[in-house]
Each structure stands twice: as structure tokens, then as C-alpha cells.
Amino acid sequence: MTTEYLVDIGADHAAERRRRRHILMRVAAPIAGVIVAAGAIMAASFYAYEANRAGVLGISDDVLRELQGRISLQVSSYLDPAVRATQLVREVSSGGVLGADREMTERVAISTLARIPQVDAYEFADAAGDFMMVRHGESGGIDTKLIRNSPGARQVIWIRRNAAGQEVRRELDPSDDYDPRTRPWYTGALETNEMYWTRPYVFFTAKTLGITASIRYQDPRGSPLVFGVDISLKAISDFLASLKVGRTGRVAIMDKSGYLIAASDTSRLLQASSGQADAARIDEIGDAQFTAAYDRYRIEGYGQRVLDLEGGRIVSIVAPLPTAEREWNMVIVVPEKDFTGFVTRNTRTTIFMSLAVILVVAAFAALLVRQGLRTDRAARLLRERSHEIGRLNAALGKLAAHSELFDPTQQAPPAMLTEILLDATSARRVSIWRFAQDAQTLHCEDSYDRDSGRHVGGMQLSRDEVPKFFAPLVAGEELEVDGISADPRTATLYPVVMQSLGSRSLLVIPVRCGDQVTGAVWAEDPPKSVDARNFLRIAANMIAVRMRGAPEVQETRMAPTPAATAASAGEQSFSAELALRGIDIRGMAAKIYPGVAVMVLQLSDPVALAKRQQNSTPMLADAIACAMQRIAGECNIPYLKVTGQEIVAAAGWEPSDTTAVERMADAVLAARTACLHLFEEAGLPPSFRIGFDCGIATGCAVGSAPRVFNLWGEAVTTAGILARSATPGTVQASETVRRRVGRDFLFRPRGDFYLARVGSVQTFVLASRL
To answer: Taking the complete model, does pTM exceed 0.70, yes or no?
Structure first.
């Protein structure tokens, strides 16, 4: 298996690589510099941000540790007096709950309540369920609650005292079913010899959140007694709320089970449980930051951590509170941005300022790239201009060295002249044209194609064929057309002359002899160059010298051949011609016509036929049919039929009708002009073709009443084939037609064409009447 490579040996690949490297250095180097500078600035900003953030967090660690110590000291100073008061009251209550020492114990409790505001109440209970509680009352007074279970019926007595300590009244509360033996502070104290601390709960009487510190001891008879002190937690929560931890930081105290002891937000300390208020757990209050800190504490234990949450990073601290042998923990949560917010803002400001610097650098880099590219472009244009000037100078030198090119007596086409003009302008094709017949036709003296390297001459264009192209040219205007097929001046010229080559632009310089335009110089697909245009003007002025003295161009008139002349004179036997074709006229039911002129107009775009030219005008198919009816009447064409997308016209039924072919030629030219006009008004390309032939046809009336005359045969078939193979917007005629009317009409050779049973025949383009 072999692989073949196609190599363009005419291309300079080394020069192309050098050009690419040069452009890369011109563009990529400044861009790379901007990218490196931007990367360095961003890296420095990121490093500064991380370093500042680490420093700020380090300082925040010290602040939080100081805060932790302050909270520990505050909680200890809050609880320790209550503990000492508990020990004092217990010492004086050596008797039973309701024994001889009750009044003295009550006085001591009242005295300590007035001095230690964090103590909410003192409680005494024994195994019989007898109970005494001394607590703060209304308006600064003291209330004492006594429960006697024996002897006799149970009694619940409330003793109310005012702020001066004087008893104001006593009340019985038979509905009170409080039993101290079922309360946690009582049952917990019985299980330990140390002081027992309950978890936070709602006090039965005061209905506030607090804790109870209780201790077990014995009366003189050896019966167990339990003494407890109720401590309100509201003051601790108020203290935590007063702390300033960053901007939005919060503090909470919880026990080892996660129940909140105190929090800066007191509204979250309670939750509903079994229809009653109870202490809340820290992971049940709906605070994502406290929940995240508590979850990490349960997994990793005490410590300070930075946690990533959905709302951003937070700094959390969970640490024990070493106070009175209680297993309480302090929880602090602070959003990191409270500490590093100014670092972020300063870094953002620094980045914006750096971006401004980067934009300035990028602008200078863009200017550098632009200036470099402009310099390269100017150098390239200078080289191209120098090359173009050198090429034009060389062409002028050739013109000066070959003065015979402008000799008016020279009969041969100026082949070297078109080659010089093409080399000077770098166009695709250069042609020299000359007016004839009072500017009614253009005759091509010579045309040189760069790609094929061939010279072509002798082509003729009629003014009737391309009227919009002739009008400005005769007036002496220069034409510069970029879209030949779309411009109205050259739309009809394009399919005739330029479509086969694929030219897209055209430059036409008129040749003037004084005030008279005698010809033109064409350059197809020329470069946009003022120097090339000026060179063509100079060449046109020099060609004018040649055209001024040259003899008038004689139009090509195709003389009838001897066979055609003999046929027109009746020297050819029509019956013998039919016999040669294998046709027996005696067996024919239809009539055979020997010299019918047939035109077939084919409309190739079915959608265009249904389009209206304007809102108030008929559709295109109707307009074309009306135009053909009018032309048939003016040219005396007896047969006209519309079949689908074709219109068939015929004339010359009788041998005595010697003008049928000439009338049909006039009708064909009129039909072409009318169709060009109608398609142009509709804003459409000329989507029609015309075939024209003269020969044998067969016809007769067919169908029932009313019977319709139908025509068929070789002439009709050939005209249809010529129409289908014609160039859009043109008329393709057979050699027979050219022989009949070649003296009065202008024909251009189109090429050879194959017909069945006849062989290869030559076809022509009918241009105009002479």
C-alpha cells in the first residue's frame, strides 16, 4: 500500500514559515508579556491575601482565648457564691425539714437570698415528702412554701412576706400536687455523696429556666435529707448577649449532653416537649453554625477549628468550663469574615487596582501589536507597490519597444498587446473591443486568458442583446463592477461572455478618438489598484490611435450555402427528402409542412412564474403569456401554445410564405427582450431559454369538438432540445436558421450539437438584427 503526496513546488514554504514566525513574535510576545504580568500580580495578591488572612486568624485565636477565660471567670463568679450559700444554709439546718430548726433555717435562707440575686430559691425535702422552699416573691418580698404530709392530711401552705421581711398573709393551696421525691434534684442527690447538678429545666413554681445544685445529708435520727438551691440562668445568658465577638459571633454554654445552659439568644433556650416547655439541645435549635461546631466536637473533641459551611467559613471553639466540678462546655461560633472581612476588601481593592494596571499594560501591548502589524502591512504594501510599479514600467517598456502594436494598417489581432496588458494588471482576462455599425455592435479584436494562456477573437455583441451595458459605454463612462451577475448593467452580459470563466468583477475603460468612443478595454477580476487603472487608461489612449485609422469592421454575414439556395429556389424535391428520411407521404393521415419555423420558450423556474412583479400587477407567467400574444400578433405568427413551462410558436405553413423564418427571428428577439424586462422588474435572474429551428413538422386537428390543431415533428423536437441546452437568457438557433436569415441577423457560433438520425450539427446564438 502506497501513499501519494501532492506537493506545491511553486510555494515558498520557508518564506511562509518565516512570515508566521514574524507574526508570532509581533503578536504573541506582547500578549505573553501581559499574561505573565497579570499572573505575577494575581499571584502576589493571592499570597498577600493568604498571609494577611493567616495573621488575622492568629490574632483572632488570642482574642477568642481571652474571651474564653473571661466567660469562665464570669460563670465561676456567678455560681460559686450560690454554692457557698448552699453549704452555709445546710450547716444551720441540721434538724428535719419541718423541725425545730425550720425558722432559723428560713431566716438564714431569707438573708442569703437578699444578698445573692442569682439564687432563685432554697429547697428542703425528706423521705416522707415533707418540703420547704424559700424563694423570691413579688415586689422584692420572700415566699415560703411548706408541704406537710404527716401527721394528718397533706397541707400546702404559702407564707407571703414583704420586702421588710414581715409576714403579710398565709395561703392554703389544696390543688398543689408537687412531690419533691420525684424531682431530679432530689433523686440525683440521693445517688451521690457529692453535690449534684441537674441539667437545665423549667422550675415548677417560677416557670423559668434554671439548674438546681443539691446535696444529701442526714437529720439527727439518721433519716436522709436533701437540700437544694435553684440558680436562675437568665443572668448568664444576659452576660453572653453583652459580649462582642466579632460582628455577628455568638456564644453558648451547654452541658455534656448538649443541653443549652445559656446562650446569647435567650429565645432559643426552650423548646416544646410533650406539650410543656423544656430545655433545648444545641443541635435542635435550627442554627447551622452551632450544629456544625457541636457535630465536630462530638467527633474530634475540644479544640478550635475553621469549618466550611454553605454560607461561608466559620471559626468555632468548643472548650470546657472548669467551674465547681460541673461538666459544662463553652461553644463560640464566629464567621471568618468578621475577622478577615477587611483583608478581603483590601485584597479586592488591590486586585481592582492591579486589573487597572493590567488593562493599561494590555492597552500599550495592543498599541505595540497594532503598530507592529501596521508597520509590517506598510512594508508589505511598499513591496507590493514597488513590484507593481516595476511590472508597470516593464509593460510600458514593452509597449515602447513594440510600436507596431498600434499600427492602424496592421490586420492581425494585437495578441502581444493583450498579453502585455494582462501582465501589467494581473487580471484574469484582458480583452480589446471595437465598436461597429454606428456603435450597434461590439467586435472583440483579441482576448487573452491568464489561466489557459490562449487568445480568442472575433466575438460580437449586439446593442439589442445587452442594452444596459452599451448605454454607459457609448457615453464614455468607465465601468467598475464587483458583482457582474447581480449588477443590472452586466447581468445579461455575464452568461454570454463571463460565466464559463467564473469572473466576478469587471473593469471597462472606453477607447476615445476625440469625442467619439470607438471601443473599450476590458479587464476581468483585476486587482484594486489605481496604478493598474491608470495604466489601462494610457493603453486605451494608445489603442485609440490604432482604431482611428483602422478600416471599419465588417459584420460577419453568413452567406447561404449552395444547398440552401437551391432549396429556396425549389431545386430540392420535398418528396425526395421525405423518401430519404423513410417517410411515405401517401400513408400519412396528417399534413406535413416542409419549412416551418418553430420557437420554444422554456421557463425553468416554476416558483418565479407565480410571483407578482408588484402588488397591482399580474403574476410573471401571465405577463409573459400576454407579451407573447402581443408579439405573435405583431409578427404575424399564427401558431402559439402554452404547455406547462414551455411556450411554442410556429409559422410557415405554406411554401409560398418566404418570410416566415425572418418573422419568427424578429419574434424570437422580441420575446427575449420582453422576458429580460419582465424578469428584471420582478427582481429575478433571467430564468428562461429559447430554442429556434426551421424544418419539417407535422400537424393536424385533434380531439372532438372543438378540435384543436396540434403540431409535432423534427422542427418542434429540435427547437425544444435547443431551448433546454441554451444558456439562460439567450436564444440558441440551428444551422438551418442561420443559413436562411444569416444576411439580416447577427449570429455567434455556440458549438457542435448532436441530433438523432442527423449527427453532429453546429448551433449558434442569435444576437440581434443587423
So the answer is: no
